[in-house]
Amino acid sequence: MLWAAKDTYGFFTTVILAPTPLFLASAILSWNLTKMIEAWEKEQKKKQKCQENIAKAK
């Protein structure tokens, strides 16, 4: 509390800059997860379509 009172700008700068790398890592991991889910859904649709075609052929 004393640090925040004595050096307000330094305190806020530290508070803002400290979690920034964590937010960046979170954004990158979320983007990668989204891409992986999209690829998995595309593969599932492809497999389902293949199974439907096999069922039609029988």
TrEMBL record:
Pfam (any one): UPF0542
Ranges that cross the membrane: 12-33
InterPro entries: Smim15
Localization annotation: Membrane
Keywords: Coiled coil, Membrane, Transmembrane, Transmembrane helix
Membrane-topology annotation of the record: Single-pass membrane protein
Superkingdom per UniProt: Eukaryota
Cellular component, GO annotation: membrane
UniProt similarity note: Belongs to the SMIM15 family.
Protein name in the entry: Small integral membrane protein 15
